[in-house]
Amino acid sequence: MAGILVAVFWAILVSFLAVALVRLAQTLKATTKLVAEVTDQAVPLLADASAAVRSAQTQIDRVDAIASDVQEVTSNASALSTTVASTFGGPLVKVAAFGYGVRRALGGRREDAPAKSPRRTVIVGRTVPAARRKRKKD
Known about the structure:
Blueprint: H1 2-109, E1 121-123, E2 126-128
Antiparallel strand pairs: 1-2
């Protein structure tokens, strides 16, 4: 009787182990199928991502070229501005000074011109009367 009891126990144990092994095999098959599907879907996604990165790199290269061109144009404009200022600046200042001198000379000679009110000098936010300023002798 003990032998039959041990044999039944082993039969039940082997049945449970067989069921567990069958379920484990099904799980492994499902996992293998899932990994294959993920791989099939991941490869095109990686190809698309690679194409997007290449496109972004191309755009970055274009922007870099544009930025260097803008920098060159800016330096050329600065050089042109400096050249124009040095070429025309001196003579224009001289012409303006000459015109001011002529106006001043002609304005000081007119006797029919109305007398101007004394000018006031502003010093850091306050006004000093003309009497306190040093006047040039005419």
